[in-house]
């Protein structure tokens, strides 16, 4: 599982991720590295979480497409997901969180793209391979009473950091057939921010080893 939260507010868009990478066969942590990357469209960044398949395919596909407009970047992301899941049909899954500056609206915008149709904790549905503009997203624990209380009081960057700590402490079980158990959110909590001036990334907190619990891949 990847911690992949986002918030668009005040003309800025932020994405938070952890850095723990796991072996898809054993579920154990094999190293630490960034789960978000800048794209040829300036300024923009894409964060990803995957199950099965090779995440490098997604990065290469998006990185090879020079997009001069945000819509072109979103189309490249949608196509990259389609190609990714064809490698392991029925097993490979992915979700992308895209933050980019839109010169038409003069603000940073946030989009979520799934490789499967689905419904979130609030009953909102989404179609596969279609970018959905959002103001915020919490990758897990959306139904947690503590998270709901924070959301009800209004989301801010500081509130999102409190939610990240709750997510780390409460990993979720993965029910995907053929996928090994995974061991949690860990490494470093990174905050990626998109403004008109560019993309900045900062380390918010050093977590170290993930909380030991079998959870879904990331």
Report what the structure shows:
It is a single chain. 22% of the residues lie in helices and 35% in strands. The chain is α+β, with helices and mostly antiparallel strands and 218 residues long. The strands form four sheets. A five-stranded antiparallel beta sheet has the order 12-1-2-13-14, covered by helices on one side. A five-stranded antiparallel beta sheet has the order 5-6-7-8-11, with helices on one face. The protein has a two-stranded antiparallel ribbon with strand order 3-4. Strand 5 (36-38) and strand 6 (44-51) form a beta hairpin. It has four helices and 14 strands. The longest helix is centred in the middle third of the chain and has 18 residues, at 70-87.
Low-confidence stretches: 213-218
CATH topology tier name: Glutamine Phosphoribosylpyrophosphate, subunit 1, domain 1
H-E string:
EEEEEEHHEEEEEEHHEE
Strand content: 35-45%
Total beta strand runs: 14
Question: What is the compact description of this entry?
Answer:
With 218 residues, the protein is α+β, with helices and mostly antiparallel strands. It has helices spanning 55-63, 70-87, 145-152, 157-169; strands at 4-9, 12-17, 20-22, 29-32, 36-38, 44-51, 93-102, 107-114, 118-119, 125-126, 132-134, 136-137, 187-195, 198-208. The protein has a single domain (4-208), classed as 4-Layer Sandwich (Glutamine Phosphoribosylpyrophosphate, subunit 1, domain 1).
